[in-house]
Amino acid sequence: MKFADIRLPVVFVVLLVLAGIGWLLWSGRTTPPAEPPALPVFSMQGDVLQPILPLAAVGDLDPLRVELGKRLFHDARLSADFSLTCASCHDLAKGGVDGRQFSVGIGGAVGGINAPSVLNSAFSLAQFWDGRAATLEEQAAGPIQNPIEMGATWPQVMSRLEQDKALKQGFKQAYPEGLTIGNVLNAIATFERSLVTLNSRFDRYLRGEKQILTPLEIEGYQRFRELGCISCHQGAAVGGNMYQKFGVLGDYFAGRPTTQNDLGRFNVTQREEDRHVFKVPSLRSVALTAPYFHDGSADSLDKAVVVMARYQLGRELAPRDVEAIVAFLNTLSGESPAAAVQ
Ligand code: HEC
Ligand code: HEC
């Protein structure tokens, strides 16, 4: 075959490829990104396979360690001037939060981020809004030494605890090495792992008590799934198992000055794609934990739901949907964990 014979088909193919590339570029430019984010899909089989699982207690917790952790969680010796305990900002009788937009630490220092609940925190993939602590043990060391939270140092805290004979004895019984920094953190973390809010009305519904929810609450759960809230808030804790951007389908931060805390996971990874990415919070007991969001900007659940639909799903919700979803979210509050009772 001579070169001249194949010249025409080659030119034709080249033209076709160029046209294809042109079309791709053009269509890419004009396609509106109005789709909800591509996230895990669940196969729904009636009520059998649910994207939300009932909560179950964390097994194998040493009761001695839980008890020690409970004491330390309420122990003012962990703060430099004896003014604060963990419970000051995580009141277990009030959903594990302080009810403020931003927490108030030692000497009245106001932080710049909302205190999340410690209830059910055992189920989170990591701790803090930006996930910077891998475990509850690692997390607990944070507030003790944070200058605007408890403002203490380890030598200070440990020398105080060392003087407490009963506490020292308790640690000796619960841990082979006795009272050490690592064991103080483990005791607190073990206590926190016991803070599971079992038997919410929603969990009883999942377990087969179909009459326990009102039609409005069931409608709310249905809308929560249909709209796509479930793609991020899912699993036993209805959240806590992934990171997502705050503002997937709209710029949540537009029109207000942003703070270091608004950068979210970017502060941990320094990766551009992690800017404004946060741990998806658990919605267990969410009815008790206002105000909402890392910036504490939504003072009611209604407002939080509207913001979520707008910025995460690109939707303006009808008032009926807001009402139903809020009714559903109210069914997620369970029993106060036994260890949480003072
Ligand atoms: C001055 C208020 C304050 C005190 C005291 C405090 N915390 Fe917190 N806690 C916060 C704030 C605010 C955050 C969120 C900080 C962030 O994400 O950057 C937080 C986050 C947490 C988290 C992570 C929850 C989640 O879902 O990510 C846990 C667990 C926790 N605190 C436990 C404790 C323990 C244990 C103590 C005592 C050793 C304690 N806190 C003392 C305010 C406080
Ligand atoms: C793309 C993932 C995604 C979707 C979809 C989504 N959320 Fe969220 N949700 C988040 C993230 C991330 C946050 C934390 C935002 C922040 O404060 O930085 C959050 C926070 C919340 C909060 C506040 C919780 C708290 O403790 O402060 C509520 C309530 C909530 N979402 C409900 C909903 C509802 C209802 C829907 C559906 C209308 C929904 N979310 C859809 C990711 C999502």
Provide structural commentary.
This protein is 39% helix and 2% strand. It contains 12 helices and 2 strands, in the order H-H-H-H-H-H-H-H-H-E-H-E-H-H. Helix 2 crosses helix 7 (181-193), helix 4 packs across helix 7 and helix 9 (215-227) crosses helix 12 (319-330). The model is unreliable at 27-48 (pLDDT under 50). The protein has 3 domains: 1-31; 63-193, Orthogonal Bundle (Cytochrome Bc1 Complex, Chain D, domain 2); 201-340, Cytochrome c-like domain (Cytochrome Bc1 Complex, Chain D, domain 2, Orthogonal Bundle). With 342 residues, the chain is mainly α. It has helices at residues 3-30, 63-73, 86-89, 136-145, 154-162, 165-174, 181-193, 201-206, 215-227, 266-269, 301-313, 319-330, and strands at residues 243-245, 277-279. It has a two-stranded antiparallel ribbon. Bound molecules: heme C (2 copies).
- CA-CA gap between termini: 92 Å
**Order of H and E elements:** HHHHHHHHHEHEHH
Return Rg in Å.
25 Å
What is the CATH superfamily classification of the largest domain?
Cytochrome c-like domain
Major sheet: size, sense and barrel closure? 2 strands, antiparallel
| Coarse morphology | globular
Biggest sheet: strand arrangement:
1-2
Continuous helix count: 12
Bound molecules: heme C
Structural class: mainly alpha
DSSP helix fraction: 25-40%
CATH topology label of the largest domain? Cytochrome Bc1 Complex, Chain D, domain 2
